[in-house]
TrEMBL record:
GO cellular component: cytoplasm
GO function terms (MF aspect): unfolded protein binding
Pfam families found in the cross-reference section: DnaJ
The organism's place on the tree of life at top rank: Bacteria
All residue ranges annotated as the J domain in the record: 3-66
Taxonomic source organism: Actinomyces urogenitalis DORA_12
Protein name: Putative chaperone DnaJ
Organism lineage: Bacteria, Bacillati, Actinomycetota, Actinomycetes, Actinomycetales
SUPFAM superfamilies: Chaperone J-domain
């Protein structure tokens, strides 16, 4: 078991951009076409480390419980099969894929959210109740989410 942060050579406070940059550098160094056939396992470990640290949800899970918290029994983090036969995503990461940054990451139902709340020492010591605004998505009752006036159809 190796520490994913050490593997990529970044601190635990590293930004997503720093992690991406470190991953690209490490993956280029260890890629079988560059480093030769003896570095496949290291290359795979770097892939796993990046797949965890680049996903905010997986990164939080890893930070809280380490590598064991991620494994779903198959030896790889959930959502990562370990099948390296399709390296298209890796090359897209290296060489870019146009202006897109991949699928939009919209909050899913039940997903944890992070909110910064300022509290005083007295609040911490004696307890306090704070009101926190939460953004929610609701379907419009007038149009049912179609954004069309009642009695009209959307134009496609």
């Amino acid at each position: 078991m190796s520490d994913y942060y050490e593997l990529l050579g970044v601190s635990r406070q590293a930004s997503a951009e720093e992690i991406k940059k470190a991953y690209r550098k490490k993956a280029r160094q260890l890629h079988p076409d560059v480093a030769g056939p003896g570095h496949e396992e290291e290359f795979k470990e770097v892939q796993v480390a990046y797949s965890v640290l680049s996903d905010e949800e997986k990164r939080q899970t890893y930070d809280l419980g380490g590598e064991d918290a991620l494994h779903g029994g198959g030896g790889f983090p959930p959502g990562f099969s370990g099948d390296f036969s399709d390296l298209g995503g890796i090359f897209q990461t290296f060489f870019g894929g146009g202006g897109s940054r991949g699928p939009a990451s919209r909050a899913r139902r039940g997903q944890d959210g992070l909110v910064a709340v300022q509290v005083s020492l007295a609040d911490v010591a004696f307890g306090a109740t704070k009101t926190v605004p939460i953004d929610t998505y609701v379907t419009c009752t007038t149009c049912g989410g179609s954004c069309c006036a009642p009695g009209t159809e959307p134009v496609t």
